[in-house]
Fold each of these.
Amino acid sequence: MTRTVYRCVLLLHPQSFRRQFAGEMLWIFEQAAATEGAGLLLLDALVSLARQWLLRYGTWKIAASAIGALLYLTLAFAMTRPF
């Protein structure tokens, strides 16, 4: 069951990353899950997933723009309200 979840997390990674690292990551998971436990390995795969999409593929720019826009709108709305 845990191996299936781990494989699904690997499938969510960008294609170029999967081609280069998915086989090795799955091999490490299979070797270490019995002795180290699958929880930390699954957490590591989730951190890797976030890192790949946010940092390598420019998604962080979209997220930063959305946060900036929300902050601007919040400040603009707060300044137009009387105290």
Note: The chain has a mean pLDDT of 84.
Amino acid sequence: MADIDWTTELRKIERQYDGLPPEPTPAELRSRREIERREQRREQDRIYRIGTIGRLGLVLALAVGIWFWPYAHDCGLRLYAYFAASVVIVIGGVWSIVRSWRARAPIVHAVALLVTLWGMILLASQVLPRVGYARVDPAAPPTWSCQA
């Protein structure tokens, strides 16, 4: 009779009297906590993927928008602004590559790779002729600064 824990027994009787279910066992509690952790993780992964897609959408909008660049970008400050926009595309693409890899989103990752490649092509199309690597018209070679 001495090995009965009357506090525990009284708690069980009170729960039963109040119409509550019996207290869960430690195994049931672990199972519930594990299910809650999985649900939290799924929600965090979903939010992370949405954020990744949103960031890639902004970079993709810039990558498509640069195609319609409204200014001449043959020399001077306008050329440097074009370079800055192209660098932002590359940096944003690399950022999206890393995030999509962590989010395990293969389609988003592929699009991020293409956007980064597009930004690098834009940069190369302006830099290579100016450094003498690409073939250009010898009568009017591209320059870095505009003639005053």
Note: The chain has one domain: 7-131.
Amino acid sequence: MAEFNPNTKTLACVAQIKEAVKAHGLDPKKITTSRDAAAVKLRTEMKCTNVPEGFTKWQLPVFLEKGSLMYISIGNPGVSVPEQFT
């Protein structure tokens, strides 16, 4: 893993989110669940690699017009984060 930097994404990536949503045929005005086929594909495409070992993180394919990005982060049971990352 490269050096951990949780802030590699900027609001400039909103264009990437819009492209990904369009490419997978998602309608931002309709409800999409994590079980929708397009959402499953996007989860793989939007997986973040800049996380400590034992964690998984995905950027959600949504954004707020006021400038906010959303993520889901999951830590394995019993995983610890080195002090430098806390």
Note: Residues 54 and 79 are 6 Å apart (CA to CA).
Amino acid sequence: MPRVEEYVEIKRPVNRVFAYLTDEKNWPHWTSSVLEAEQTSVGQIGIGTTFRGVDQIMGHRIAWVSKITEYEPNRRMSHVLTSGNNLVEQHLTFNSIEGGTKFNFVYDMKAGGLLKFIAPILVITVRKAVKKNLNKLKAILEEQA
């Protein structure tokens, strides 16, 4: 399974970073590929919460659904995202550091169909996008200070 792992240090408290990142309404603001995202389950966010959305990747609109598999406020959130026969496990971890938060982002991809043949190219594209998105996230959150 191709894996992308990056982190960013943000000069904001963990609780603020966690709240921003776990609110799906914010995903299109800091993630360049996300066009739409909405919670589809009822109630507060936690293990089992479901979402649906649309990404644009390499010029193609891709619909997806996801389900939270791990949720610990101000520490971690993981979810499994599926789109057709493609699966992504996304792991977000939040650590308090002096002056702010270290946010780790891990993206494990299991490409199916034709995507499995371009997975090495896709990983390069995703890694570049993740780095850019994390820098945008840092700017957005630090601007709110």
Note: The domain at 3-143 is CATH 3.30.530.20 (Alpha-D-Glucose-1,6-Bisphosphate; Chain A, domain 4).
